[in-house]
Write a structure and sequence with these properties.
Elements: H1 4-30, H2 36-115, E1 121-134, E2 139-142, E3 155-157, E4 162-169, E5 174-178, E6 186-190, E7 196-201, E8 209-211, E9 225-228, E10 232-233, E11 238-239, E12 247-255, E13 263-268, E14 277-284
Antiparallel strand pairs: 1-2, 1-14, 2-5, 3-4, 3-14, 4-5, 6-7, 6-9, 7-8, 8-13, 9-12, 10-11, 12-13
C-alpha cells in the first residue's frame, strides 16, 4: 500500500545526505592539506589501498589468462597466415624448379641435335601423353602428328638417345613403338670399333636389348657404347629409318664371348619409364 509518510521520510533523508555531502565537499576544498577531512581521506586510503592491491594481485592470474587466450588466438591467426604464405611460396618454388628442369631437358635435346649430326633433320619436339609408357604394348602417345610433318617409321629420340619409331600418325597425335618392344629392331654398332649387329629387346625384360648374331671375331665388352649404324638393312635391302650414331645404350654383359654364339646385352640409354619430352626426326632438309 502506498504510504505517503514513508515517502516523505525517504525524501527528507536523501535531502539531508545531499546537503551533508555538499557541506563536506565545501569544507574539504576549503580547508588546508593538514585539515581533518584530508586526514580522514588519508586514513581511509591507507585502509582501502592494501585491499585494492591484494584484489589486484588475486585477479592478476585471471587477467593474464584472459590476455594469454587473446594472444593465443592472435598468434594462431598469424601462424595460419604464415602457413598459407609458405604454401604459396612452395608452389612458386616448385613451379620454378619444374620450369628449370624442363628448360634443361629441352636444351639437352637441342644439344643432341648438333652433337650427333642431327641438324640435317627437322626435329619436332613432342610431349608424351600420360605419365608412363603402356607396358603391355611397349608404346607411348605423343601430341604431334601429320599436321606437324610426322609420318610413320620416323625415328623418335630424347636427350639420352633412341626411344623408338612412329607406328601411327594422325592430325595432332601419334603412337610411338618403343625399343623395348620385342618386335622392334634396329641395326646397331659398337662405337669404339664398328662391330655391327641387329638389336632386339629381350622378351619379358624391357631394360635388356640383345645384339645378335655376332661373329666369333667380333669384339664386344661390358660398358661399350652402342649406337645406330644407319646402314642398309640386309634382310630387307632398304635404308634404315634411323640416322647414324644415335646412342642406343651401354653393354651390360656378353654371353658366350669369343664364340659364334656370343650375344651382347645392352641397357637402353633412354629411361623409357619416365619419358616426358621426345623428338620426332622428320624429313631431311632439302627433301
Amino acid at each position: 500500500m502506498y504510504d505517503r509518510k514513508t515517502v516523505r521520510r525517504r525524501r527528507a533523508v536523501l535531502g539531508l545526505l545531499v546537503a551533508a555531502a555538499l557541506i563536506l565537499l565545501t569544507a574539504y576544498f576549503g580547508e588546508s592539506a593538514g585539515g581533518g577531512l584530508h586526514s580522514v581521506q588519508r586514513g581511509v586510503f591507507s585502509i582501502v589501498s592494501p585491499i585494492q592491491d591484494g584484489a589486484s594481485r588475486a585477479l592478476k592470474p585471471f587477467r593474464d589468462a584472459v590476455g594469454w587466450v587473446g594472444d593465443t588466438f592472435d598468434a594462431k591467426g598469424e601462424v595460419e597466415d604464415l602457413r598459407k604464405e609458405r604454401n604459396q611460396l612452395r608452389k612458386q618454388v616448385a613451379s620454378g624448379e619444374l620450369a628449370a628442369q624442363e628448360n634443361i631437358r629441352l636444351r639437352k635435346q637441342l644439344s643432341l641435335d648438333t652433337n650427333q649430326g642431327l641438324e640435317q633433320y627437322v626435329p619436332v619436339t613432342a610431349r608424351v601423353s600420360g605419365t608412363s609408357p603402356n607396358v603391355a604394348s611397349h608404346s607411348i602417345n605423343i601430341d604431334v602428328g601429320t599436321s606437324d610433318g610426322v609420318e610413320v617409321d620416323m625415328p623418335v629420340i630424347d636427350d639420352a638417345g633412341l626411344v623408338g619409331k612412329v607406328v601411327f600418325a594422325a592430325g595432332g597425335a601419334s603412337k610411338v613403338q618403343l625399343i623395348s618392344d620385342p618386335a622392334f629392331g634396329v641395326i646397331g654398332q659398337v662405337a669404339k670399333n664398328g662391330v655391327r649387329g641387329p638389336i632386339h629387346a629381350a622378351v619379358g625384360n624391357p631394360n635388356d636389348l640383345v645384339m645378335q648374331p655376332l661373329k666369333r671375331r667380333d669384339q664386344v665388352a661390358t660398358n661399350d657404347l652402342v649406337v645406330t649404324a644407319g646402314t642398309v638393312v640386309s634382310d630387307t635391302e632398304r635404308q634404315s629409318p634411323f640416322p647414324k650414331d644415335i646412342l642406343v645404350g651401354r653393354v651390360t654383359g656378353v654371353d658366350d664371348a669369343g664364340q659364334d654364339t656370343q650375344k651382347a646385352h645392352i641397357r637402353p640409354a633412354a629411361d623409357l619409364g619416365r619419358l616426358e619430352y621426345v623428338q620426332v626426326l622428320t624429313k631431311v632438309h632439302g627433301d
